[in-house]
Amino acid sequence: MRLTQLFALAAPFALLLPLSAQAAWPAGVRAEYMKDCTAAASQSVDVKSAEKHCACGADKLNEKFTTDEIKQLMSKQTQPDPALRTKALDAIAACRVVK
Length: 99
Known about the structure:
By secondary structure, this protein is mainly alpha-helical. It is built from 5 helices and no strands. The chain has one domain. About 70% of the residues lie in helices and about 0% in strands. α2 packs across α3.
């Protein structure tokens, strides 16, 4: 009986996990990242592959970085910390583009 109550209590929190996983990107910043990334990547691969690669990169950043870290990476006013930039490039490197 207690196990059933525990599941009933835990279920709403489990359903909220996917929502919290998408919370790292500030409003409009992901779209800006996708636009800039796709424009750069489409110079060496087709647009569809570029979009797929950039979406993968955005997902990796979302998984591994906080909102503040993403703001630092995407800031147009200041250069991001070199260690943070390297960490971001390492995370995105997992997204391979097949030509």
